[in-house]
Amino acid sequence: MTDSSATTGPTGYSDAFLPVRVPLPAPHDATAVRELAYTHFTVLLDTDRRLARATAVNIDGGALLDVGRGDDWHLDPRVPADQQTGPEVYARNDLDRGHLVRRRDPVWGSATVAGRANVDTFSYTNAAPQAAGFNQSKELWLGLEDYILNTAQASGERLSVFTGPVLADDDQEYRGVQLPRLFWKVAAWVTTEGAADATTGSTTDTAQDAAPALAATAYVLDQTPQLGQIDLEQAVAARPDVPLLGPYRTFQVPVADVASLSGLDLGPLPTADRFSVARALTAGARGWLELDALADIQL
């Protein structure tokens, strides 16, 4: 039997993947973004900043395949090279090509489709400059999807994940590209364990409320250097050719904060947030909970 999906072009992210429709994020402003469909995911490319404004991926946890990683980073031929952040930005420095859609997430389905998805994740449109090396907080960031799939009782082991950099006007420019300091991620799934109350964060388990309900949580990865503003200015002036980024810190944050930071309409996700206002207020002045372990996540 022929796999027809292997002979057609990629359809990208599906807003009907979950039982509750979740549309692609949409910019509030007039920023020009180009929608690029790949296998099981979509990139919204900000052609002025040469980086994704957002990505969206469908993850079928029950159909994931193990595929050899590869490392064939490539420009997307559908987009002019000068609208992408290509290899010249990552050469001879301590910057990593950070996957926005995690390599493993869209790698499901038939072997042919999964292999194509794996290759697609190595498009430069799906990368953003990140500080090289790992620490505990970066490892937490990379493990969020697996933890949610294993812990949140996601219906059908399905998850939709939205990720992107915060494209701030004052991001430091390096080799013609402004380097994001913050990255965000929102995970969405459908649960039947009870609907979350957006005000209290509590769930109800009565039969009446046990219908499938959308749930979401949001996270921010911060690579802002932990220095005073004067120190930052001096460091940039002394070595303008060296990207100035700090150690990673990962936070769980209200989905509404991600919508504000990113300037995106996140549709039904803010009202489906499992990280309640009441809990957020105990997390710190900003209402952000710094994560030291995956078990700290509030689902």
Automatic annotation (TrEMBL):
Gene3D superfamilies: Extracellular Endonuclease, subunit A. It holds the Pfam family Endonuclease_NS. PANTHER family: ENDONUCLEASE G, MITOCHONDRIAL, ENDONUCLEASE RELATED. This is Endonuclease G. The keyword Metal-binding applies. GO terms for molecular function: endonuclease activity; hydrolase activity; metal ion binding; nucleic acid binding. Mg(2+) binds at residue 135. The active site is at 99 (proton acceptor).
